[in-house]
Amino acid sequence: MSTNNSNHTRFKAVIFDLDGVITDTAHYHYLAWKRTADSIGAPFDEAFNEQLKGVDRMGSLRLILARAPRSFSEEEQLALADAKNRHYQELIATMTPRDLLPGALEALEAVRAAGLRIGLASVSKNAFTVLDRLGIRDRFDDVVDAATIRNSKPHPEIFLTAAEHLGVAPADCLGVEDAAAGVAAIKDAGMVAVGVGSPDVLHRADRVIRSMEEFDLSAY
Ligand code: BG6
Ligand code: MG
Questions:
Q1: What CATH number matches the domain at 13-24+100-219, 3.30.9.10, 3.40.50.1000, 3.30.1490.190, 1.10.260.40?
Q2: Could you tell me the distance, in angstroms and rounded to a whole number, from the CA of residue 207 to the centre of ligand 1?
Q3: I need a labelling partner for 162 at 20 to 30 A (CA). Which of 64, 153, 173, 190 fits?
Q4: What residues are paired with 174 via a beta bridge?
Q5: 150-199 pLDDT, tens per residue?
Q6: Mutate which of 30, 55, 130 for ligand 1 pocket (most atoms within 8 A of beta carbon)
Q7: In angstroms, what is the span from residue 186 Cα to ligand 2's centroid?
């Protein structure tokens, strides 16, 4: 349903997730966690990985360890998280602007052209590195620093923080997410949610698109 105003949108800001929305780092997180899980004999597949998307590093590790054949000391847990992160950082080290997902840059440009504010809400502590490798950090009016966030998605904190930084009321924000936890965070922040991926996974989203190529600001 499109609106009649000249900008063709009722929103004042769009807040994007990064991993799996702007670029396919969700797959790199998957590969790195799979290696961790395999090394400790914990079952791991794409379906289980859906539960990790949008969840911060230690939260993801806890979900994996809950299925492991033995328990791990705090020291061992920190070592596992650190090894995963080093592997992940190796995987993202060769990224270039060509790793933007199809439609992502066009979406950022469309939001900018409509005169809206643009935020980034990723719980990844590697988000600034990824944005720099993609060459798009300056396209965002605000990038929330994950190190300042106490509650990972599905808690709405990171989306509320982004809206506050942008000076826009949550009800005037559109959030874009590929993770079920992220969509829940957007909805619980009182925003409209567009999910990128499968409607079966992202059932709380107001609208689901298969890829960012279908992103349409005037569709709400
Ligand atoms: C999220 C990803 O964006 O960032 C999760 O969806 C990841 O898979 C989380 O675990 C934390 O990332 P990092 O880079 O801080 O380990
Ligand atoms: Mg994501």
A1: 3.40.50.1000
A2: 24
A3: 64
A4: 14, 192
A5: 999 999 999 999 999 999 999 999 999 999 999 999 999 999 999 999 99
A6: 55
A7: 12
